[in-house]
Amino acid sequence: MVAMSVGLVLLGGCTGSRSAATPARTPLAASSARSLYRLDSQTTTWRLTPLDWATLRDTAGAASLSGKAEDVVASGDGSTLAALTGGTSTTAVRILDAASGAVRSRYEVRSSRGTAALSFDGSRLALEEDAGPFGATRWHVSDARDGRSLGSLDVSDGGVEVWNASLTGGFRLLTPGDGQSAVGPVHPIVAVDDLSRGGEAGRLRLDDAFAGLWRSTRPPVGSEQVMDTWEPGVALSPDGTTAAVVYADGDRLALVDLSRLLVRSTVTVQRQQSWIERIGLHVRDVEAKAMDGWLWNAAFTRDGRLLTWGTDLHMTDQGQLVMTGVGLRLIDPVTGVILQEALKGEAVEQVLPTPDGSAIMAVGTAQDGSATLVRLDAGSLAVQASRQLPADAYHQVLVLAARAQG
C-alpha cells in the first residue's frame, strides 16, 4: 500500500482587468444582485442555504433551494446552476436559474459523469469522461440552453483542465514520468488545449521547476511505502492569456504566455520556514527526500493579483500523516512581493473572491477536522467575519444571483 494524500480544492471564477490598487469596499449586501450561499452536498442530494453577508450565519426565514443530483456546479457570474446525475454511458443535466430555481433546460450527454464546469455566463457546460488508459480524457462541451453539442476535447497524459471563462480552451500542468516507480521529481509541462482543434495546441516544459510523485528513500512506515510529492499551484489570469505556476517549494512563481508558449517571467516569492528547513534541508533540492510533500493552489483575484495557499505533508516514523497548512498569501505576480498573509497555520481548502472584488471567502480546516468559513478584506486579508460549518456534509461556498423575496 502507498501512503499519500489527496487534496481537493474548489475555486471561484473571477473577471476584470488589473488595477494598481484596490480600495476598500463595503461587502455586497443581501439586497444587492448577488447573495452568499452554502452548498451542502451528500451522495445524491444537495441544498443551497442563504447566508448573511455580515455574520456568515444562515439567513433566518430565507428560502433554501434543494434537489436530487450527484454534482452541482455554478457559473462564475452566479446566474446559473447545473445539476448532474450520471450513469455508465449518459449523464442527465438540468440547467437551473440560480435566482428562482426554475429549470431552464434538461438534456443528456453521452458520457459517464466526471468533472464538470460552466462557462462564466452559464451558457456552456463542459463534462469530462475517462476516454481510455494512460490518462486519456475527453471533454464534451454543450450549449446549456438546449443541450446542443459544441464539440469535444481529447487530451492525453492526465492533468486537471483549467478552463477559460468561455470554455473555448484552457491548460493543464503535466508531470509525465512520475509515479510510484519514479526515483525523483520531473520537470512539469504546461499543455495548452483548444476546443476548436479538438485537442492539444502545444506544450512548454518548465526546465527550472520540479514536480510529481516518486518513491521516497525513507524506509517503509509499517507496511506502507512512503511517497514524496510536489504539486505546484496553477491559475489562469482573468483575461485567459496567462498561466501562473506556483512552484512546489512555494518560493517562486512563473507567468506563462499561453498564446506564444513561453515563460514571460519567473520571480522569487518570500518563503515561510517549513519543518524541512528547520532540519537543514531545502525543499527545492531534488535530493532532499526526507520530506513527504507540498501541495500548492492558486487563484487570481478580480484585479489580477494572485492568491496562493498550500499544505506541507509529512509522514512521521510512527505512521501519522501530519498536514500543516501554510495559510493564505496575496502576491503581486509581477514582482513576487507578498502583499498580505492570513490564516497562518491553517489548511485552506476553498478560496472564492467575491464578484465585486470587495472580499475573499475562504474555508479552512483545523487539525481536528473542523471547518471554518471566513470573510477576508480583499486588500488587507483581515478577517471580517467567521463561523464554524456543520460536520454532517461537504460544504462549498457560492456567490449567486439573489433570490426574490416574498
Explain what you see.
The strands form 7 sheets. Strands 1, 18, 19, 24, 25, 26 and 27 form a 7-stranded mixed sheet that branches. A 5-stranded mixed sheet has the order 2-28-29-30-31, with no helix packed on it. Strands 5-4-3-32 form a 4-stranded antiparallel sheet, with no helix packed on it. It has one helix spanning 275-278, and strands at residues 2-3, 10-11, 34-41, 45-51, 65-68, 71-74, 80-86, 91-97, 103-109, 116-118, 124-130, 137-143, 149-155, 162-163, 169-174, 189-194, 199-205, 212-215, 225-231, 233-236, 242-246, 252-257, 262-268, 293-300, 306-315, 321-331, 338-342, 347-353, 359-365, 371-377, 383-388, 394-401. A hairpin with a 5-residue loop joins strand 14 (162-163) and strand 15 (169-174). The protein is globular and about 55 Å long. Mean pLDDT is 83; it is low at 1-31 and 272-291. The longest helix has 4 residues, at 275-278. The protein has a domain at 157-345. It has 1 helix and 32 strands. It is mainly beta and 406 residues long. Helices cover 1% and strands 48% of the residues.
Number of helices: 1
Shape: globular
Q: Over the alpha carbons, how many angstroms does the gyration radius reach?
A: 21 Å
Number of strands: 32
Query: Low-confidence parts, pLDDT < 50 over ≥5 residues?
Result: 1-31, 272-291
